[in-house]
Amino acid sequence: MANVEGDQSKTLAVVKPTARGASIPIHYPMLSETNYGIWALKMKIILRSLGVWSVIEGADTDDDKDQGAMVAISQAVPDDVMMAIAEKQTAKEAWDALREMRIGEDRVKKAHVQVLKRQLYKVYMQDSETVNEYSMKLTALVGEIRSLGAKLEESEVVEKLFSSVPDRFLQIIGTIEQFGDVDTMWVSEAIGRLRTFEEGLKG
User: Is the dihedral of CA 120, 125, 126, 130 positive or negative?
Assistant: First the structure.
């Protein structure tokens, strides 16, 4: 699945996340045939900010929240998709229908996860790449796998990161493994350590 949405987003509502009363415009991502993974992640963040994600999880049946979630979803899907979910009675039903439409049956989903995992374990950082460039490519694959419901531990991703960078990083990786706890390290921390080391090499 591609995760590039271009300009397919629009500003249609505001949230007020701060105690100072500041409002932030919401840019709703537009669902396409290829971007469900990143679309779902962005919509989850938006629905949480609106305080209505609980109805999607099935933990809340408040009518106002359900209506709010449905309105948000309606702003983020094209007209043909909206027609396909128009008869759904709740936001959760609409959300689940969208997931099935874009992801498909479990068998298809699992097959896609396996394809993505093979891509993940085949990817390596090139000598011409920076840590930032490679980490973006790696974490994009990880995000896509997780968006399909597959479990991928942070420690697995850290291990993959450390085993797929060029030899010039062996020194810092050895230090991290000797003095740090790789099993509990966040991917963002591991990337940060590699990036700092890379900057030192440039200096």
Answer: positive
